[in-house]
Amino acid sequence: MDQTLTTRRKNEGGFTLVEMLIVLAIMAILIGLAIPVFKNVLDQSKMKADKSTAGMLESTLEVYYTDEGSYPGGDFDDMVRELNAKGYIKNSEIKPQDQNGRFVYDSTNGNIAYTNANEKSD
């Protein structure tokens, strides 16, 4: 009876501790490689969203200019408050989604530039 039990246990399939550790090590390496790629994709999407916001605000400024005859004065935050006060936009505060991004407003021509310290030059 002892031989039958021993034979049965040897024939049972299963993973050894070493095999499990190898699988865990491979998974850790793959996760370690994927995190920087994911972070880069996330940063790129934030920059694209900020550029889109700048474009939307420039379009809104053109409507404002048509209605008012001039662009709002002041810096970017002043311009956003003015557009909000006059009902052109709903948000009274617009900030870049990327922490290294910055909106720069030129009140003489209504241009809004988006700059980012991490953005690579083409």
Please, could you describe this protein's structure?
With 122 residues, the protein is mainly alpha-helical. The protein has a domain at 47-122. It contains 3 helices and 2 strands, in the order H-H-H-E-E. It has helices at residues 2-11, 17-68, 76-85; strands at residues 101-106, 111-116. The protein has a two-stranded antiparallel ribbon with strand order 1-2. A hairpin with a 4-residue loop joins strand 1 (101-106) and strand 2. The longest helix has 52 residues, at 17-68. It is rod-shaped. The N and C termini lie far apart (76 Å). The model has no long low-confidence stretch (mean pLDDT 87).
Taking the sheet with the most strands, its summary is: 2 strands, antiparallel
Order of helices and strands: HHHEE
Which residues form runs of ≥5 with pLDDT under 50? none
Sheet/helix structural class: mainly alpha
